Automatic annotation (TrEMBL):
Single Gene Ontology MF annotation: pyrimidine-specific mismatch base pair DNA N-glycosylase activity
Keywords, alphabetical: DNA damage, DNA repair, Hydrolase
Organism encoding this protein: Nocardioides scoriae
Protein name according to UniProt: G/U mismatch-specific uracil-DNA glycosylase
Domain Uracil-DNA glycosylase-like as annotated: residue spans: 21-181
Length: 191
């Protein structure tokens, strides 16, 4: 499935709902993006841009057992398999933009507070924020670095992992998978 630039631009400001296990089902690992991109908004599937390495990295890490092709939208079976594993996805900022740089610090800080509320409600074992820069802005922690964070987050273990966007040229599927495997082990999803 492809989109024209005009079609994608029509999704600016659109919202994408969180992908979470049904209430009462355990949430082992909550993955936190910065905000939905336009492709994500168009497909209503998190991390959907074809250049995004999120799902291939989760598969390579062993967190997912079957490939997901989000560029056309996750199927109901994809969503069920994802949430049955105790996985969830949310974003710091809810509105879709062409670039994360279009978000204000205030939006990211408000998103940080919303994330705290979601974590208090759903009690995941581990929270993993994808992107150290957004994490720093959302929580005012200018010196934060990637990896496991020293402080607990609403009584949950907190990690900052690399952003899987194709724009993050420092990372590959292999390096992302290594970082995500650490988080998967912390959440009890991997040995």
């Amino acid at each position: 499935m492809g989109f024209t630039r005009a079609e994608l631009e029509s999704y600016v400001g659109a919202l994408v709902p969180d992908l979470l296990p049904p209430d009462g089902r355990p949430l082992r690992l909550l993955l936190v993006g910065i905000n939905p991109g336009l492709w994500t908004a168009a497909t209503q599937t998190h991390f959907a841009h074809p250049g995004n390495r999120f799902y291939p990295a989760l598969l390579r890490a062993g967190i997912l057992h079957e490939p997901v092709d989000p560029s056309r939208g996750m199927t109901d079976d994809d969503r069920r398999r994802f949430t049955d594993r105790g996985l969830g996805i949310t974003n710091l900022a809810p509105r879709a933009t062409a670039r994360a740089s279009e978000l204000s610090t205030e939006e990211l800080q408000a998103g940080g507070e919303q994330l705290r509320a979601l974590v208090r409600l759903r009690r995941p074992a581990v929270v993993a924020v994808a992107g150290v820069t957004a994490y720093r802005q959302a929580f005012g922690l200018r010196r934060a670095s990637a990896g496991r964070q020293p402080e607990r987050f609403e009584d949950c273990e907190l990690w900052v992992v690399p952003n899987p966007s194709g724009l993050n040229a420092h990372e590959t599927v292999v390096s992302l998978a290594a970082a995500y495997a650490e988080v998967g082990r912390a959440a009890g999803l991997l040995p």
